[in-house]
From TrEMBL:
An aminoacyl-tRNA editing enzyme that deacylates mischarged D-aminoacyl-tRNAs. Also deacylates mischarged glycyl-tRNA(Ala), protecting cells against glycine mischarging by AlaRS. Acts via tRNA-based rather than protein-based catalysis; rejects L-amino acids rather than detecting D-amino acids in the active site. By recycling D-aminoacyl-tRNA to D-amino acids and free tRNA molecules, this enzyme counteracts the toxicity associated with the formation of D-aminoacyl-tRNA entities in vivo and helps enforce protein L-homochirality. The lineage of its organism: Bacteria, Bacillati, Bacillota, Bacilli, Bacillales. InterPro entries: Daa-tRNA_deacyls_DTD (IPR003732), DTD-like_sf (IPR023509). Belongs to the DTD family. PANTHER family: D-AMINOACYL-TRNA DEACYLASE 1 (PTHR10472:SF5), D-TYROSYL-TRNA TYR DEACYLASE (PTHR10472). SUPFAM superfamilies: DTD-like. It is found in: Cytoplasm. The keyword RNA-binding applies. A motif (Gly-cisPro motif, important for rejection of L-amino acids) lies at residues 137-138. It comes from Aneurinibacillus thermoaerophilus. A Gly-cisPro motif from one monomer fits into the active site of the other monomer to allow specific chiral rejection of L-amino acids. Homodimer. Its EC number is 3.1.1.96, 3.1.1.-. This is D-aminoacyl-tRNA deacylase. Its main location: cytoplasm.
Length: 155
């Protein structure tokens, strides 16, 4: 599982000219799922993101999580995160999970974020979406689930 995490001042997602998700301060997540991802990966990444200390404290240090600042999440499915551009000029998406596997795991991931006490807005899985955001910082990170052999490591 691969998630691009962007700290934002506000963000929204629109489908067919209709805004379907909107947050104020918080995180925009672009969520990619590959074939061997499991619920354990989704739990790991959700817990990591919910507690990632990337918001500033009163001293200007990144010491607060999205939970600490009562921020929200805008989660958008993004199969292109597993696009392979190493060969040719057209990306290959063979590493991206098929929708019948990816959508339930994406929904499970968002539910795990909600279980952390976070407000989670989403796009529509598989739809063409317009994502608008005001980056804060900018702070952009990539969070990935650990390889199969190290999934039991503590976060």
């Amino acid at each position: 599982m691969r998630v691009v995490v962007q700290r934002s001042k506000r963000a929204s997602v629109t489908v067919n000219h209709k805004m379907i998700g909107k947050i104020d301060s918080g995180l925009v997540l672009l969520v990619g799922i590959t074939h061997n991802d499991t619920k354990k990966d989704a739990e790991y990444v959700a817990e990591k993101i919910a507690n990632l200390r990337i918001f500033e404290d009163e001293n200007g240090k990144m010491n607060r999580s999205v939970k600490d600042v009562c921020g929200a999440i805008l989660s958008v499915s993004q199969f292109t995160l597993y696009g392979d551009t190493r060969k040719g000029r057209r990306p290959s998406f063979v590493e991206a999970a098929r929708p019948e596997q990816a959508q339930p795991l994406y929904d499970f991931f968002n539910e795990k974020l909600r279980e952390q006490g976070l407000k989670v807005e989403t796009g529509i899985f598989g739809a063409m979406m317009e994502v608008a955001l005001i980056n804060d910082g900018p702070v952009t990170l990539i969070v990935e689930s650990p390889p199969c052999s190290s999934r039991s490591l503590p976060s």
